[in-house]
Amino acid sequence: MLSFNLFTQWRKGFAAVVLMAASALAQAGVEPYTVTAPDGVRIAVQEAGDPNGQPIIFIHGLLGSHLSWDKQVNSRELQRYRLITFDMRGHGLSGQPERADAYRDGRRWADDLAAVIAGSGARQPVLVGWSLGAAVTTNYLAAYGDGQIAGAVYVGGVIELTPEQIVSHPEVYRGMASPDLKTHLDAEREFVALCFSNPPDALTFQRLLANAAMASQNMQNAVHGMSLDAPKGLGAMHKPLLLIYGAGDALVQAQPSFNRAKALNAGAIGRFYPKAGHSPFLEETQRFNRDLSAFVDAATPR
Asked: Quick one: pLDDT at residue 236?
């Protein structure tokens, strides 16, 4: 059995490589920065696109990072917007607190997003949350309301952590929690594979798998118990709300999740991508980017 001490050393080394890549990006004109959450966790933030454009804040999913959004950040169609990404706590280049309550308390994730909005100075951003990122958006709405945002897009969004809405994969999640390194990494690879109905190219898959390997083990063990107040968050949302699901989603029950969101917020609009799984923004990128652009323009008339 391989020790997680060895795994932690490897992950720190890998993080150093990513930091060097971030430094190279900074030299190319992209300036990463950090904001600090109320509980002291440092959140890594990145920006692209037009700094004077309508801001869009992208919130990645479980085991992801800001790199999950490469096909949006590098889209020519979206360069007219101010594109803001960040690594959630326990992910990527952001802080990885050890205590379980740092991940189980949904308010802390909401506070991270609020810190990104405030720290970036983004005025009336559109929030785009993928999977767990949608749950973080909901907790933000529950804690802060919708006064500081222009609208929200949920992508493969987790509405509630219930068996009716989440596809059961007990062996995968059990493997991800395993102290045996091989079992842990194999389960993470299977989890990443479940994000797709149509697998991405090999380089994209390898990058997403590296994202997963960098994620905090403490976070992975605790996040499934994260508090989530969908009635308060979605129920009080009055700004435009779009939910995009892949018809072949293997992680979230697409139709039941949308139905629940619609019951909580009658104004929610749903779109289902027939060729996509849990990652419509990667599997049907052109359609997603067009839909996102149209939504942002409608939600933020100039």
From this structure: 87
